[in-house]
Amino acid sequence: MFNNAQIPEDDEEMDELSGEEIADHFKEIVVDGSERLYHASATAPYPFPVDTPEQKRVKKEHELLKFLLGSNLNGTISQALIPTSSRQRVVVDLGTGPGQWPKEMADAFSHVTFHGLDIVPIAPRVGLPDNVHFEIHDINEPTRFLNGSIDVVHARSISLTVRDYRTIIREAARLLRPGGVFFSGEWRRYPTFDPAIYPNNVTTPYINAPGLTRFFDQWNEILYQRLGIRPDVEREIPQLIVDSRFFTNVTPYAAFMPIGDYRFELPMKQAGRAYRDCMSRYMESSRRLFLDSGWSNASLDTMFLNAAQNMRFVEGLGGVYYTVTAIRV
């Protein structure tokens, strides 16, 4: 059952970083009067901060996804991690962020080595299981691992980090052994409505949730125009995997998550509240790119307020999380 106890507390902080590490990997930017920490890479397009407030959102989202999908993994991944006497099982987690997924998986699969890759050193460095390793890497570039040496490549919520998702698919195909598993999971950057309430899809986002719809319309346009990040890539990933011809058993899945507490079942009501909070934090993290694109803080505040009112008062509003698993031929 999902409950508020699973949500990280607001006083959880990222590991203390040295001044040299901050200079090498981060840059501080004032956004609406507050200093926020961003990655300093000149090539990676990721537009969000990487500081403690943003990590709180990511940690909440991690718990939401476990609730939504039922666990940290599915049966296909479990099969790929069955112990074998012939080789060490190895997993690579792309865009690992604070590293919750590999840390929790490492506790459950002590015979597997987990490598979490991220462009900034925000994952913990103390108190880790012996089978978890974090390293700095831009996932748009080839990794250091040998061809056919990996059992699972896990890529969750990385669509804001890559301009061409085919780069990720090709690298996953290179890394995976025959029979290895590629997993992708991405939120759709657009509002939708609960199929349990509107089974015939009688709603129109522009009419029923104009505030949140406007935010996503503007956000997707800015992401594409300024960073080359395509809208709707989450729905294109299964076909991109098929087109690569490196994989078989390509299995897509879509899960609905309510925004707000309109659902009567307590676990879903609690999850909906947490997701609404995540969405509010998500919008605030987008502020810098909007400002860089010519928006004023006042106009952003108005748009965010209209979106927030939709999320609080429009019954049946939600988001969709798309996953796909594929097996390396």
UniProtKB/TrEMBL annotation:
Coiled coil: none
SUPFAM superfamilies xrefs: S-adenosyl-L-methionine-dependent methyltransferases
Name of the protein this chain belongs to: S-adenosyl-L-methionine-dependent methyltransferase
UniProt xrefs under Pfam families: Methyltransf_23
Taxonomy of the source species: Eukaryota, Fungi, Dikarya, Basidiomycota, Agaricomycotina
InterPro entries named among the record's database cross-references: SAM-dependent_MTases_sf
Domain of life: Eukaryota
